[in-house]
Amino acid sequence: MAFIPHTDDDVRQMLATIGVERIEDLFDEIPPALRAAPLTGIPPAASEMEIGRLMSERAARDGRPLSFIGAGAYEHHIPAAVWAIVTRGEIYSAYTPYQAEASQGTLQTIYEYQTMLASLTGMEVSNASLYDGASGLAEACLMAVRANRRSKSLRILMPRAVNPTYRKCVQAIAGNQNLRFEEIGFDPASGQTAFDAVERHAGSDVTAIVIQQPNFFGTLEDVDRLTDWGHKQGALVIAVVNPTSLALLKPPGEWGERGVDIVVGEGQPLGVPLAAGGPYFGFMTTRMEHVRQMPGRIVGRTLDLDGRPGFTLTLQAREQHIRRGKATSNICTNQGLLMSAATIYLAIVGPEGLERVASASMARTAELVAALTKIKGVREAFTTPRFHEALLKLDRPVGPVLDELARHGIAGGYDASADFPELGPTLLVCATETKTSGDIATYAAALGTVLGTARAA
Amino acid sequence: MNDTNLTAAAREPTIFDLSRSGRKATAQMPPPMVAHVPPELRRRRRPLLPEVSELQAVRHYTRLSQLNFSIDTEFYPLGSCTMKYNPRGCNQYAMLPEFLGRHPLAPVALGQGVLACFHELQEMLKEVTGMQGVSLTPMAGAQGEFAGVAMIRAYHRARGDLARNEVIVPEAAHGTNPATASMCGMKVIEIPCNAEGDVDLDALRHVVGPNTAGIMLTNPSTLGVFERTIAEIETLVHGAGGLLYYDGANLNAILGKVRPGDMGFDVIHMNLHKTFSTPHGGGGPGAGAVGVGARLLPYLPIPIVGRDGDAYRWLDERDLPASIGRLSGFMGNAGVLLRAYIYMRMVGRDGMQRIGEYATLNANYLLARFRQAGFEPAYPTRRATHEFILTMKREAREHGATAMDFAKRLLDFGYHAPTTYFPLLVPECLLIEPTETEAKETLDGFADAMIAIQREAAEDVGRLKGAPYSLPVRRLDDVRAAKHLDLTWKPAA
Predict the structure, then answer these.
(1) What is the second-level CATH architecture of the domain A80-344?
(2) pLDDT of residue B39
(3) Which residues of chain B lie closer than 8 angstroms to A96, CB-CB?
(4) Nearest 5°: phi and psi at A398?
(5) Is the same domain home to B52 and B114?
């Protein structure tokens, strides 16, 4: 039997110990009318060899396109050691470290992770991960409502330049608690959040303002000015950041005069494969003064009976298994395995490696934009400095262009036209350190062919 | 007897203690390139990241891993968590390079293989639960619960039934149930269970009414027994205009035997990391797929995989305009879904039913052994389902040996502790779930360890109070941890 070890003899002995004749007798408390018919819709069992072959065929069919897509998930090199370690059974098949003495490995890893993420973002404390960046932003908005006791409005300023999927996700999760999200437009020339649109809310009760750096277009925002404005209004400031970019960019803890209050983001770029959309992990850091409003697990260092240091889950009175209906969040299981991968990734690449990944991604994107905008019918939408993504305007609908590129084995970017119809046909492209000059030339040649124009000199 | 043999690994320093300025793992880095960051946006001080060699990192995290208990190394009878074996084949074939390298927004024309797996998984989950539609996107059980309650809310609102803002939850429920209801802006009404572990129907009758949005139930319940009055509950709640939510935490117990859809539930979440054996990863990732009956189909969270003829595609807000929306950046925990898909295919039609049978056999066998040894079941007149509760209140009264003492001493015997002090209403309780993947010898070894600890409790309870002795650390001071918060490593001053 698949994954069931019992011999016939075992079953006989066990039933005798229980004092019943058949396994079926153990289900005698279930009303007979409720018993299920055979599950004819499930295929018969396949062996590991058969399913292995099927999966390999399906994987081969999907292939490995040359990808220039970002839009919230980024292809980076992952050192081989990262997944060799996290797929060890002692990490992979353990559970939440409720029994601290039997989980020191997981707990110490979380403590190291908390240290790395707090420092990377310039904040004081970190939790042990949330599900992903998008749902993490929803948790951050709910946290801001709890933490900003002076504000009664439940109003959150949400720039339109924030990842559109994040905005939808925040609405779906936090909208049920009557939070109101006020959209703030962007400047059509710079791609930055429009400061005059922000200013319109001056003097009103604002619970929090969200700032994404770089924003969805890859554009760098004037984060100091926005942060100071938010604080002047009595709002909390929530930063949404790309963790790779923080090797080069000023950390949110240093934005403006005082730094932001809550930082969240998608942790996937730190050693987690793209994997068709997940599992990734969300990170969240904050100031010590807000730690009791933070959702998710937190690990602290303490002492054991013999006075030696050890690690344990702490501040559990915030959590659902203690506080039930009054918890900071319903989150229980989070993304422990991915948090472990990120910790090992950061340990191996170190501060210099992360800086090189960020610089190479930024430089390769500049090279990509230069190559693609030489093609007639392609221009860059905005003029402001960017990190490792850029929004391109095309002279025709983007969908068919991407379909045609797919036939060349190229995933050419994200079609942003439906999200930002006011900009016309737009394509969001990204290059990281994984792309060579040769890859960029291949893409430019294919796009030139697809657009049916010769490249200008 | 010397069981204070602490290993060297117990003193593993932090990765920051190993760090030396200027040390780096260059083979893993790209070559340096110049990036033009505007000066006012540039980072001034490097973050506190370790500077170690690859070997140091590998050795450090390998040694840390060895400080953990895990399913691959120890029996892990953690009640309500279904810590069954995670087949390696599921992991290997979910981690094929094409799957790992696939960008979630890559063209669907280049993703028909992975979408076929998701679509077939949706269909299999519908079949095994008896529901009409499934969405795979929730990323954990608690997010599945959230999706479920949000759909119930959307259903009532769409009908203009705006007064329904109360969710009924039995007091034995997982903490995530009331926390979820609150997160959805609902009022939580807790109701008691009777002495035999069934929901108190009189209490239910008293609270259902025009404000009832729904009830959240686990069946088998968290008390380790089948909720026998489920048909009456269904009639009462539906009769009052409310909907029924099934928390799938305990689905393993009834897999192939009873389907939540047939019990009258309108919406369920499944913990794929429990029932369908995807690894728990030291606290996630999970996956909390939701299934719904006909009434809630329009509200399912997106994206869902649809099929047009031979081609698969994502269904989004254009296909499901009444959807409660998106709960994740992309497609939930896609890699977890692939593992669950492979597991279900390897188990197959008949194997699915055997899971419920052998999980139940193992739990009832362990319970029988504990009864013979004089332990006290919390619900002595009831069958165990896939799990059961022992109460140590007599051991606590007579010897001062608490459930926590048993739990900690079990670690010295090489067994992970059962769930302790949950459900909250049973005093000094241990919630024990062996799962179907454990052999009889393992169960016997565990029962023998409990019996040995029972004897120790009578002879020298101090032995239990000081446990564990053989782990990397002894009992930790949780009060100190919360009072003197030390949440990040700091360089020596």
Answers:
(1) 3-Layer(aba) Sandwich (3.40)
(2) 95
(3) 280, 282-284
(4) -80, -35
(5) no
Cα–Cα distance measured from residue A302 to residue B34, given in angstroms and rounded to the nearest whole number? 43
Considering the domain boundaries, does residue B269 fall inside one? Answer: yes
Six token digits for residue A68: 């220039």
Same domain, B379 and B405: yes
Instruction: Specify if B79 maps to a domain.
Output: no
What is the amino acid identity at position A453?
A: T
Expressed as residue numbers, the domain containing B288 is 89-347
Backbone region of residue B414 per phi and psi (left: phi > 0; alpha: psi in -120 to 50; beta: other values): left
Q: Residue B401 in contact with residue B218, Cβ under 8 Å?
A: no
Contact flag B30-A250 (C-beta cutoff 8 Å) = no
Is B35 at the interface with chain A, CB within 8 A?
yes
Residue A376 · residue A394 · CB < 8 Å: no
Please determine, looking at this structure, whether the domain spanning A66-76+351-450 carries the CATH number 3.40.50.880: no
DSSP-derived letter for residue B75 is B
CB < 8 Å from A in window 376-405 of B? 382-383
Within 10 angstroms of residue B398's Cβ, the number of other Cβ atoms is 11
CA–CA dist B443, B435 (Å, integer)? 10
Query: How many contacts (CB atoms, under 8 Å) link A and B?
Result: 689
Is the complex ipTM more than 0.90? yes
Would you give the distance in Å from CA B439 to the centre of its chain? 23
What total number of domains does chain B contain? 3
Give the pair of three-digit tokens for residue B483: 């009072």
Partner A, chain B 287-316, Cβ-Cβ below 8 Å: 301
Query: Cβ contacts (< 8 Å) between A263 and chain B: which residues?
Result: none
Tokens of B207: 């609270």
Does B470 touch chain A if contact means CB atoms closer than 8 Å? Answer: no
Q: For residues B230 and B331, state if they share a domain.
A: yes
> Which chain B residue lies closest to A408 (C-alpha atoms)?
B110
pTM: 0.97
pLDDT band of residue A318 (cuts 50, 70, 90) is: confident
B441-453 burial string, b = 16+ CB within 10 Å, else e? ebbebbbebbbeb
* Residues B376 and B308 occupy one common structural domain: no
B404 shares its domain with B317: no
Q: Are B395 and B455 in contact (CB under 8 A)?
A: no
Q: What is the mean pLDDT of residues A354-363?
A: 98
Q: Is residue B77 part of a domain?
A: no
Inspect the interface and report whether the beta carbons of B142 and A333 lie closer than 8 Å: yes
**CB-nearest partner of A411 from B103, B254, B481:** B103
Task: Check A275 against B102: CB less than 8 A apart.
Answer: yes
Substitution target in A54, A74, A108 with the highest count of B β-carbons within 10 Å is A108
Does position A317 have pLDDT exceeding 90, yes or no? no
DSSP three-state, residue A210: strand
Residue B444, φ and ψ in degrees, nearest 5: -65, -40
Taking only the tens place, the pLDDT of each residue in B347-384 is: 999 999 999 999 999 999 999 999 999 999 999 999 99
Max CA pair span of chain A: 87
Q: Collect all residues of chain B within an 8 Å Cβ-Cβ radius of residue A348.
A: 25, 28, 52, 54, 57
CA distance A377 to chain B (A): 22
Contact between B134 and B306 (Cβ < 8 Å): no
What is the helix, strand, coil percentage profile of chain B, to 5? 40, 15, 45
User: Rounded to 5 degrees, what angle do the CA atoms A457, A397, A191 make?
Assistant: 75
B143, B272 in Cβ contact below 8 A?
Answer: no
Q: Mean of the per-residue pLDDT values for chain B?
A: 95
Q: Name residue B304's beta-bridge partners.
A: B315
Are residues B118 and B242 located together in one domain of the fold?
yes
- Give the C-alpha separation, B51 to B57, whole Å: 9
Q: Tokens at residue B131, please?
A: 């529901």
Q: Do B330 and A73 make contact, defined as CB atoms within 8 angstroms? A: yes
User: Are A246 and B352 within 8 A, CB to CB?
Assistant: no
